Amino acid sequence: MKYIDEYRDRDIAQKLLARIAQRAQHPWVLMEICGGQTHTIMRYGLDELLPRGIELVHGPGCPVCVTPLEMIDKAVELASWPDVILVSYGDMLRVPGSKSDLLNVKAKGGDIRVVYSPMEAVRIAQANAQRSVVFFAIGFETTAPPNAMAVWHARNLGLTNFSVLVSHVIVPPAIRLLLTQPGNRVQGFIAPGHVCTVMGASEYEELVHEFRIPIVIGGFEPVDLIQAALMLIEQLEAGRAELENQYSRSVLAAGNVPARKIMHEVFEVCDRKWRGIGAIPQSGYRLRPEFAAYDAEQRFGLHEAGVEEPAECISALVLQGKKKPHDCTAFSTRCTPQTPLGAPMVSSEGACAAYYRYRRHTIPS
Amino acid sequence: MCSPGVYLLEELGCSMCLAIPGKILEIHETGDLRVGKAQFGGITRQVQLSFVPEARTGDWVMVHVGFAISVVDAEEAEKTYQILQSMGLLDAELPPAEAL
Prior knowledge:
The complex is a heterodimer.
Chain A (H helix, E strand, L loop, with lengths): L9 H14 L4 E5 L2 H9 L2 H4 L4 E5 L4 H4 L2 H12 L3 E6 L12 H6 L4 E4 L2 H10 L4 E8 L4 H14 L4 E8 L1 H10 L7 E5 H7 L2 H10 L3 E4 L3 H17 L4 E3 L11 H10 E8 L3 E10 L8 H4 L15 H5 L23 H4 L4 H7 L8
Parallel strand pairs in A: 1-2, 1-7, 3-4, 3-5, 5-6, 7-8, 8-9
Antiparallel strand pairs in A: 6-11, 10-11
Chain B lengths: L3 H10 L6 E11 L2 E8 L2 E6 L11 E5 L2 E5 L2 H20 L7
Antiparallel strand pairs in B: 1-2, 1-4, 2-3, 4-5
């Protein structure tokens, strides 16, 4: 496929890797912040193709993984009600809440529909006027505009049986948190190309200047990621800290203005709890008060119940790049994609699940 | 080498971060939405085009959860590809990595 095959080209990848080997004079720790990128790195073994001193660590870049337990519990509760149809992206079904997951509720007869696009949720609401349709709206800034458009469109259609359970998260506050943590090891970031396609470059310019750290906006194919790593290494070796855009075929400096417009019409920034990390100020989106009628939490009177995460799980350290998944004593034994203990094991895009899936599940000695 | 169909299914499997390139075949304005059809390898799907008002039939767009979020900049893609290709020429002029 055009715009995919050329970025999976073995010869180009090898040439880029040879150049990295020539340029890298020092050890460097680089972090990608998007689960899609983590998945590509593991799938193609890119971390093992890089010179020994170049370490890739994997940030909290999977919105499925970082959705808090409490929010999963709310979705599970809603899906258990007989007059509710819960509509969700497929990735969410296996994610465990504190007691159950959506797949389990579905097995017991809960009406849960999996969709690829939020607009399908609106169509389901149109086709089921007698029932309440709740869409589980999660994702980063990439997914927020499509989810916002679904709410916008539902309002234009005058639908009264449609609402959304919103658990959106925002990337830059998580990067800022990582960089202000004591013991931070990350020296350069590969920024998420599709988040930046929507949001543009300015927030990452700010991070570069605030923390004097190089950031390269990267794509999702193996050549994209190796090239992004090379660009970071060249900056680090030269003592530069700049924002560069490897994914220029999709990312404009201004981002996608119409997408952001609809997102800001429907959502506003709020504090948000991240599974495995905790509360991060101003790190999420919620519905604006004008759209309160579409807020499932208000409509169904759902209450926040504090839930403890499993003590054995070291996901907070994994998500900060301080530990690798296989450093965890539960990895691949008590914690697997089938029975995940914590955030990074719950979705295929989480770092632990990616390590597990791509041959990294040998138990460390 | 995967078939385009396999590519698509594979990419759709991880829906939350990824966008895949598709070529716009047709465009319609319906009420508050701009929608169209796009081709992904051998598969045709409906796509929402409201976020890319500048997109025209024949353009390539990056599609995330059914929404086009950017028009692929063919010039930028070509430029990047040329850089990647020409890197090989430069490398031929350099000693092999092992020698350094």
